[in-house]
Design brief:
- The chain has no helices and 15 strands.
- It is mainly β and 207 residues long.
- A hairpin with a 4-residue loop joins strand 5 (61-71) and strand 6.
């Protein structure tokens, strides 16, 4: 039988393996570490026959660890493990429907991915907001990148988004300040207005 183990330690992956055969015994065992290119093709690495020490890979990319053991009777067992090493945090940006430090009565926020190779590698998207000067609690979780229409009261707001990928890399973004005013103007009519009218009926409407 063969036992294989893949572990992660500070973005370094290590694989170890053992092969046993109770009858004819082990004739040969080796490991190959294949690396995939951008088109999904594998290279042709040299077989590693010295398995006395763990094999460690720290380079970013997609790899296949291939472990082969053959006994003296010609029986062969093959085990493979696909590993993706990623220590780059996902890229994204916040896009609002108005410029920062501009008053608006309707604020929309959109989370956009910038040069993100595979959006499916994103594990969680958390976001939150608070009035300027207050602490921001990340309580909302989004399932995907999307546009949000925010129901806000009056005030000056700051937003924060935290995106984590499947490998645990985290990217945070803090926005500028956005001004929200949802209260209609108050209109006060001058009481002397009627004294300045020449005559007739005047109807004043406000909305």
């Amino acid at each position: 039988n063969i036992q294989d183990e893949v572990s992660q330690n500070d973005y370094v992956y290590t694989i170890t393996g053992t092969a046993t055969d109770a009858l004819s015994g082990i004739k040969e065992e080796y490991v190959k570490v294949y690396k995939f290119d951008a088109n999904g093709n594998k290279d042709n690495p040299t077989a590693i026959t010295d398995l006395s020490t763990p094999i460690t890979i720290s380079e970013e990319g997609k790899f296949e660890f291939y472990y082969c053991a053959e006994d003296n009777a010609g029986n062969k067992t093959e085990v493979s493990e696909i590993v993706i090493i990623d220590r780059t945090a996902p890229e994204f940006s916040l896009v609002f429907n108005v410029e920062e430090k501009t008053w608006t009565n309707k604020l929309e926020m959109e989370i956009k991915a910038n040069n993100l190779v595979d959006v499916e590698t994103v594990d969680t998207i958390k976001w939150g907001y608070a009035l300027e000067g207050d602490a921001i609690a990340l309580t909302e979780t989004l399932e995907s990148f999307q546009k949000l229409q925010l129901d806000l009261t009056n005030g000056k707001y700051v937003f924060k988004v935290e995106v984590t990928d499947m490998c645990g890399n985290v990217r945070e973004f803090d926005s500028e300040v956005y001004y929200v005013d949802v209260v209609k103007p108050v209109v006060t009519l001058n009481e002397d207005l009627t004294n300045k009218l020449l005559g007739g009926l005047v109807e004043v409407k406000t909305s």
